[in-house]
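The material for today's practical consists of a large collection of protein records. There is nothing in a record beyond a sequence line and a structure line. Backbone structure tokens are a discrete shorthand for how the chain folds in space. Nothing more is needed to start thinking about how sequence determines fold. As an example, a complete record with its sequence and its structure tokens follows.
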Amino acid sequence: MVNQYETVFILTPVLSEAQIKESVEKFEQIITNNGGEIVQKKHWGLKKLAYPIQKKNTGYYHLVEFKSEGKLIDVLETQFRRDEKVIRFLTTKMDKFAVQYADKVRAKSQLTEKS
């Protein structure tokens, strides 16, 4: 069964723009190569962490919303754990209300971009 998921991952702040882009593309390819479909992706940029992680106070935040089978989550999270550039990650399964809300927000942001 295909579900919709949202994953947020934080990359270490010492990376260059090219390294960040490369890492994000790597995780997006893992999703698409394993039968997932990316619905939305957002780069939230460099943000302050709530508490230090690995002696770092900031990190590059990324959100990827995607549709896939549940078995992809194990593959994706294994890759997050293996990559030393990732300092934290969280994947959540979106219920129907979260999906409706995300669709509404996406539609609203597309309207404001066009005007």
About this structure: The mean pLDDT is 92. The radius of gyration is 15 Å.
